[in-house]
Amino acid sequence: MGRQLPTRLVVKVGSSSLTRADGGLDLNRIDRLAGALADLVGHGHEVVLVSSGAVAAGLAPLGMRWRPSGIVDQQAAAAVGQGLLVAQWRQAFQAYHHHVAQVLLTTSDVTRRSTYVTVRECLRDLIARGVIPVINENDAVATDEIRFGDNDRLAALVAQAIEADLLVLLTDVDGLYDRPPSQPSARLIDRVESWDDVAVAAVSGAGSSVGTGGMVTKLEAAKIAWACGIPTLVTAADRVEQVCAGENVGTYFVGGDRRPGQRLAWVAYAASVDGTVEIDAGALDALRRHGSSLLAAGVTAVSGDFRAGSVVALVHGGAEVGRGVASVDARVATAMMGLRMGEMAAMGIECPRPLIHRDDLVLYASPRP
Asked: What is the DSSP code (8-state) at residue 233?
């Protein structure tokens, strides 16, 4: 029995699925993907495409045989290749009477609240007008310090921003296996309902010689989507027609039980973190069991030079357990540390308050190392 495809999808395709053996763009593959996605749009679905391949597309024109390791060379290849990439997508979709819009993003576009909202509204407006956004990281200006790391994570953040109903990650393997797919006994995991289901899965690191991803980044993206209540499908790009037909292919990750509000989802997965607040076991228990605000009495250490309104990481036992919006700056937070409400007034701290209000706080289902 097949799957009923939802209305709004974010589809990400990796570099390895868009390039030939020599590293150049595979125009036949692009046309095939465009045809399948155009058919979805024609049947009333809304599609946002996150496309890797800019660096790969720029290799041949610059005489490079493989993806360079230096950031400057990567930027040069992306600057040349991005125009080639979007031109091919535009031509492919126009054959099916659909317009595309290029959207290049950097981490600051989603980590700053003001630009995040602008990006979100722009994408929603394009979708409403029947235009297919083609999104990529702006590799020509991104550096190692300010990168998404891989378009899988970017796709998950886009899915969260536009409240997508499904995230589809197209790659060069059929899905998630319980051991290396090259082994005859390898079994495809067709459905993941709990993260315990993937504990025994074989997860590789980097992908192809022209890409940056692998199954690790896809699992990370699926976790972000799960936390936002969005299911994820990971499968081979060659199976795109089957995906669009609603057939049971690849690995399907069930979405989480609830969707956090847009602001809290941004706090948890998109915002830049300006400081760290370490909390004790009692505070963590109160947050998890009772949905309490974070009181200063449960804080054991404060680091970073953050301001009131900044996003800070909550840490316990050396692992990040959540994030929240600080109600005070780092200096005041340090002075409040370990104090109860009544003690704050005695210390001369004006307007005693929780360090992070429960409405501004997100806890992760499992700690991050």
From this structure: E
Compute and round to an integer the Cα radius of gyration of the chain: 22
Q: At 140, list the tokens.
A: 């020509």
Phi-psi region of 320 (alpha: psi -120 to 50; beta: other; left: phi over 0): beta
Contact 18, 49 (CB under 8 A): no
Pairing verdict, β 8-13 and 251-253? unpaired
Q: What is the pTM of this model?
A: 0.83
One-character DSSP codes across 7-76 = SEEEEEE-GGGTB-TTSSB-HHHHHHHHHHHHHHHHTT-EEEEEE--HHHHHHTTTT-SS--SSHHHHHH
**Token pair listed for 194:** 């709990």
Classify the phi-psi angles of 166: left when phi > 0, otherwise alpha if psi is within -120 to 50, otherwise beta.
Answer: beta
Which residues make Cβ contacts (< 8 Å) with residue 309, sequence separation at least 6? 325, 326
Tell which residue, 192, 190, 264, 273, has the closest CA to residue 228.
264
What is residue 123's predicted lDDT score, i.e. its pLDDT? 97
Residue 307, both tokens: 């301001």
Helix axes 113-128, 262-269, angle to 10 degrees: 120
Task: Indicate the helix (H) or strand (E) that contains 330.
Answer: helix 330-336
Residue 21 has pLDDT above 80, yes or no: no
188 phi/psi in degrees, rounded to 5? -70, 130
Cα atoms in the Cβ-side hemisphere of radius 13 Å centred on 183: 10
Query: How far is it, in rounded angstroms, from Cα 203 to Cα 214?
Result: 8
Residue with tokens 């005489």: 63
Among 9-18, 137-146, 158-167, the range scoring the smallest mean pLDDT is 137-146
Question: What share of the chain has pLDDT > 90, as a percent?
Answer: 49
Which of the pair, 222 or 107, is modelled with greater confidence? 222
**How many CA atoms does the CB half-sphere of 235 hold within 13 Å?**
22
What is the per-residue pLDDT across 191-226, written as a single tens digit (0 to 9) for each? 998 877 776 565 544 444 434 447 888 988 998 898
Sheet holding 251-253, edge to edge: 100-105, 132-137, 46-51, 8-13, 166-171, 232-236, 251-253, 191-192
